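Notes from the pairing session

We agreed to fold both candidates in a single pass and log them together. This is the raw record for the first candidate, unedited. Please don't reformat it; downstream parsing expects exactly this layout.

Candidate A
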Amino acid sequence: MSSTYLVHRHPGQSFLYRSIIPRDLQPLLGQKQFQLSLCCGILSHAKLISQQLYHHTQKIYAQIRHNSDQLELTLQQIKHRLRIELDKLNQPFSVPTPSQPPEFPHHTTESKPKKATTTITLSELSSRFLRAKTEAGYPLKTVNGYQDTHKLLLEVIGNLPLDSISHQQARDFIQVLKRLPVNRSKSYANWSIKELLKYEHQQLLSPKTILKHTERISALFNWAINQGYTSQNVFRGKLEPIRKVENVEKHFTDQELNLILGDALKTESIEQNKPERYWVAMLSAYSGARLNEVCQLNVSDIQKT
């Protein structure tokens, strides 16, 4: 997938379609590029949709070139056309098909009338999502990772109807993740979430693991939006990105450099008959070469300039 027309700024958010406006049309449209939300957080779906939008956009550009005198489209009008096309592309994922048989054998005939898009439960969504990913050929390790995260979410907030899950519950889930210990399945196999939260654990889930859980949950709810099971992803944007702390390098002072590279270095290397200690240190200090590069040098490699 070309990075020129598929953008993903933050985990858990929808992909964006980006079009680079051709140079000859930039003065007419007043911009060099524009973006459009795909309303989709699943990479495989976003790729297909963005490819279709790309070809549709190129047709619009061609129409403008061939009819520049008669066809005067603004950038907003182009986006409007693309949104109409996007709605058509998303239609197979958002239109329910009640005439189809239930997906799972435990759904009885009596439960059919109740299977509305607003009443699907979290566990039902998880089952359908995992089944779809398995059928799509996702690796078993990836599917199992999704399943573990879904189980954790169910344990924290319960098996609720999708539309009843609130933003506050999503925020609470993130806070629970930040208080859970590492290696829970091994060290605390029989402990419930409530029992774990009663204690302050020394080793907690790493920010990377927490991010992975939130990305999986957002992927689940973005998929649910595409399938028409719900209208919003309440987990989107709930995890604040961890700000990277820049490591400030500590440099040697002039006094320390004189101590390291001073007369003592030369004297000790001569007395111990190990001249390499002196020359390796000096070459490293003044050439900027790597240590392994300096150590592989021969005397013939050194030239006076």
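Candidate B (folded immediately after A)
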Amino acid sequence: MTTPDPTRAQQLIRACRMVAEARPEQIARLLKDIAAQGGSERAL
């Protein structure tokens, strides 16, 4: 089992905190940004 690099883990933790503290409209915007970056095959 490999451990992820710390920077990736910190990014995930930061993203989780953002979602936990965000208002619904902020979460919707964040999901749209992620979908746009992820490519058309992952679009919501």
